[in-house]
Structures are given as structure tokens and as C-alpha cells.
Amino acid sequence: MRLPLSQRRCYHKRIMKAELLAALIAVESGGNDHARGRHGELGALQVRRCVVTDVNRIAGKSYRWSEMTNRVVATKVADIYLTHWAKRIGRPATDRDLALIWHHGPNGWKRSGGVYWKRVSAAK
């Protein structure tokens, strides 16, 4: 059964597996939904304002940065962000690619990964 066009636009296939999500949350905030980072990151995933702005532009949404203390909303934002930027890789994105995009931004997958990837992979 094919969805109507209006629903297809809203359908979003999750790119981030539950195991990676749990590892990112463990590394970013230790599971604290109300965590605040040194540079203004917020929530369990330590979402930056620029990520929320980018997701709203990419997906035509109207998420607010203050909503990032809600883990469900923050996960949706992270998944939209990662899905969009992972398309630029030109191959299926690995967990490493996604973690580095989350930590370093859209071109993060080009980096070596270093300490951050070691922490995320150890938390998986």
C-alpha cells in the first residue's frame, strides 16, 4: 500500500540505530535530559542551537531549542540532522560516520574520529 503524497513527505525512516542513540546519550550527557553543555548544548544529546535551526530549515519544521530537554523530540531532531548530512557521504553511513557528524558537524565523517569515536564505540 502506497501512502498519500501528503503523508509520504512526513514519513521519515530512522537512520540512527537504538544502540548508537544510547551510546551518544551516554557519552554526551550520561543520560541527563536536562544537561547543559559549556557551549550552550542542551539535553541528553547535547543539541546545539545551530542544529535545531538547520533541522527546521531542512525539514520545514518549527522545533524550539528549549524542547531539546525532551528526549523524544531531541532524538527526532538528531535523526533528521544525521539523515540529511549522511546523504553527502556517497555510501551507506556507518555508526562511526553518524557519531562524527553529530559531534563535529556536517563534514565530521571526514575526520579521524579520535577520542570521541573511541568513547562512543566503548559505550555501545
> What is the number of strand segments?
0
For the report, how would you describe the main beta sheet?
none
Helix content: 40-55%
Q: Over the alpha carbons, how many angstroms does the gyration radius reach?
A: 14 Å
**What spatial form do the alpha-carbon principal axes imply?**
globular
What gap, in angstroms, lies between the N and C termini?
36 Å
The DSSP helix count reads 6
Helix-strand pattern: HHHHHH
Low-confidence stretches: 1-11
- Approximately how much beta-strand content do the residues carry? under 5%
Structural class: mainly alpha
Give the integer mean of the pLDDT values.
89
What would your notes on this structure say?
It is a single chain. The model is unreliable at 1-11 (pLDDT under 50). It is globular, with a radius of gyration of 14 Å. By secondary structure, it is mostly helical. The protein has helices at residues 5-10, 18-29, 49-59, 71-86, 95-104, 114-123. The protein starts with a helix and ends with a helix. The longest helix has 16 residues, at 71-86. Helix 5 (95-104) packs across helix 6. The protein is 52% helix and 0% strand.
Short description:
The chain has 124 residues and is mostly helical. The chain is 52% helix and 0% strand. The chain has helices at residues 5-10, 18-29, 49-59, 71-86, 95-104, 114-123.
Features:
mainly alpha, single chain, 124 residues, 6 helices, 0% strand, disordered N terminus
